Amino acid sequence: MSMQMHERADAALGSRLLGREWELETFSVYLSHYLKMERIISIYGAAGVGKSALSEEFQKQAIRQGAATVALDAARFKAKPDDFCRQILKQLGLLGTLPSTSDPGFVVRAAIEAIQRRAESGPTILFLDSYELLDDLDDWFRDFFFPQIKAGCLTVISGRNPLSEHWLNSMVWKRSIYRMPLANLDYCSVVTYLRGRGITDQELIFRVWKQTDGHPLALAALYGGRENSGGPENGQEDSPAADRSLSLGPSPEYLPKAKPEEVIYARTDLTHREKEVAALAAEGMTNRDIASRLFLSEVTIKKHMRSIFQKVGASNRTQLLKLLMD
């Protein structure tokens, strides 16, 4: 925790997650003292900032230390209590033990009891990713499910937004949640990332830093395929192709089969907030839904959308998506 910047950068060379050394160290402390720590770790940040990757690294770390893990992605099941609990039982190898006529309440009780039994025999960690997709279950998680999961089970929740004020104002949870916001990578981490891909020219590194703002997905879109592609001796860091990718944005070869969200976050002409708004709009969300998700007014969202349309050269959402993907 007390390493100097250059030492942290050197250590990161052997790590899959540059710039997340502090988060990994914090989670290591939780693994060692889980009975005395908060019961929920809330990881949150903008799309593409690396929440899922960090959660996966936590899972590996937990498994290495002998903890039992259950990892669920909200994008892969319906936002219903019994479907969520069936996923838990499936990962624990117990889904087949349910009677064929099990009602939803029985499934929920079976999942809670299964986690409790597992926690009694050692550290058990429940990972829940893409939590923003589970708004309809938020009250149920806070008031029913998690209160029944007693000591011995740590929960890691990952999502674009921090847990709501309802959690933080709850007598049960306000002292049991550790907030772990994820920001873009710092300059030191960007330098290490680019040097690992043979880019050492300081001017070019600074341009990449300024253009991507250290956003992990934007960096990966530009240079994700360059690892071990050569060092400064072959001059690739100063190549015309690299220079064009910085001047004009990511070229097609750096974004094969890109998703709208990936393309949006790789752009350099949009502000960070505009990227958030554009990504949610690309998902089909209305201005009202986006305003609710980002805790902003609809008027503010409309202003952002007008700015996005102007910068991209679109007149409506359909055209916006088409222009982004061209």
Automatic annotation (TrEMBL):
- Mention any Pfam family matching this sequence: GerE
Q: Where in the numbering of this chain does the HTH luxR-type domain appear?
A: 263-326
CDD domains attached to this UniProt entry: LuxR_C_like
Q: Which residues form the signal peptide?
A: none
Chloroplast found in the keyword field:
no
Record PROSITE patterns: HTH_LUXR_1, HTH_LUXR_2
Write out the entry's keywords from A to Z. Answer: DNA-binding, Transcription, Transcription regulation
Report if keyword Transcription regulation is assigned.
yes
User: One MF term from GO for this chain?
Assistant: DNA binding
Where in this protein does the record put region Disordered?
A: 226-252
Name of the protein in its database record: Helix-turn-helix transcriptional regulator
